[in-house]
């Protein structure tokens, strides 16, 4: 470490381990890896699981609403939906009210999977050695960071 890095502290450091973005990246990769064996039992990838979480919560929804909820673009969500549809877990159809809009809903098979998936959140907390209160505090902090980062990104656009 150079004297310059020592004097700048974490806020001005270019050291990898001092970067907030890298800590978030490493945590995200570790969490996703911890989900993998749980989701493998369900035959799902992590992004597919996220799609189903939205649909289980909201019921039939448009692709546009789904992309907004997941904070992903159409080009990322569309292949996920195609694979979920091919697996018989969701169905897609054009809206009768607006032909430009595509509706997505969970099938009966997708609803059956919901029952098996209900154990995933608790298993993840146990695997990460977090109690419910710790998980809630962490979730609140991460959402607060996401909102602040969104505002920062909006200012530079």
Our estimate of the beta-strand percent is: 5-15%
Q: Classify the oligomer.
A: single chain
The DSSP helix count reads 8
Gross morphology: globular
How does this structure look, described?
This protein has 157 residues and is mainly alpha-helical. It has a domain at 18-118: Winged helix-like DNA-binding domain superfamily/Winged helix DNA-binding domain (Arc Repressor Mutant, subunit A). The chain contains 8 helices and 3 strands; from the N terminus they run H-H-H-E-H-H-E-E-H-H-H. It has helices at residues 3-12, 20-40, 46-58, 63-70, 74-86, 108-117, 120-127, 132-156; strands at residues 61-62, 90-94, 102-106. Strand 2 and strand 3 (102-106) form a beta hairpin. Helix 2 (20-40) crosses helix 7. The radius of gyration is 19 Å and the shape is globular. The model has no long low-confidence stretch (mean pLDDT 92).
Write the layout of secondary structure elements.
Layout: H1 3-12, H2 20-40, H3 46-58, E1 61-62, H4 63-70, H5 74-86, E2 90-94, E3 102-106, H6 108-117, H7 120-127, H8 132-156
Antiparallel strand pairs: 1-3, 2-3
What's the gist of this structure?
The chain has helices at about 5-10, 20-40, 45-60, 65-70, 75-85, 110-115, 120-125, 130-155; strands at about 60, 90-95, 100-105.
Which terms would index this structure?
single chain, 157 residues, mainly alpha, 69% helix
């Amino acid at each position: 470490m150079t004297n310059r890095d020592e004097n700048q502290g974490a806020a001005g450091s270019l050291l990898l381990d001092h970067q907030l973005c890298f800590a978030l990246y490493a945590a995200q990769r570790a969490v996703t890896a911890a989900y993998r064996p749980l989701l493998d039992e369900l035959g799902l990838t992590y992004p597919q699981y996220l799609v189903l979480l939205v649909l289980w919560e909201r019921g039939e929804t448009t692709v546009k609403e789904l992309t907004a909820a997941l904070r992903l673009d159409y080009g990322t969500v569309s292949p996920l939906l195609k694979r979920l549809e091919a697996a018989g877990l969701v169905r897609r159809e054009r809206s009768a009210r607006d032909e430009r809009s595509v509706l997505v809903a969970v099938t009966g098979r997708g609803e059956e999977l919901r029952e098996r998936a209900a154990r995933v959140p608790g298993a993840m907390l146990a695997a990460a050695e977090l109690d419910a209160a710790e998980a809630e505090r962490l979730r609140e902090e991460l959402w607060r960071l996401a909102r602040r980062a969104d505002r920062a990104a909006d200012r530079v656009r």
